[in-house]
Amino acid sequence: MSSPQSLSEQERRAVADWAASCAERVLGLFEAESSDDDRPRDAIARARAFARGELTAAEEIHRRFVAGRAARGLTAPAAVASARSAAQAAGVAHMGAHALGAAAYAASAAGLAAPDDPDAVAGEVAWQVAAMTDDVRAALRRLPHVGEDSAGPLGPGLLATGALAEIIASIQDELDAERG
Hints:
Blueprint: H1 9-33, H2 39-51, H3 57-61, H4 66-69, H5 77-91, H6 98-113, H7 120-130, H8 134-141, H9 162-179
Helix pairs in contact: 1-2, 1-5, 1-6, 1-8, 2-5, 5-6, 6-7, 6-9, 7-9
């Protein structure tokens, strides 16, 4: 029995490209601190390759945490969040809910990079929602709301608590509001 957070392969391919776009927008924050580490950039490229059908979920499942390891040893919180966004984007091949993780970490990175701008996170979320295709919207609407499932990335854990949960909830609220 599959998790409601998994999504079909076709849906995961659609949301993988969107998740990669979210992560790519903040990649410079990581590269500013660790320009010689290409793991997050590679994770974004792999997410896009998965979206295009060039890689399979099986090929990506064991590599999904590589970019997250790039966050170790970094000192800038925005760089850490950027690396984690790329890792979440790569994780979409395994489970579609990671797309919301990629978006949340990207918005968090944008906010951390602009501590004097109270609208930085909301601005990033607005861009993310505007960048969704109809297929991405439909797939993300199939996911349970953050904190409502008993397992998976949107269940108990990092994505379901604190600022990340608030960001994901705001994205899901936007999608619900569009439906009316």
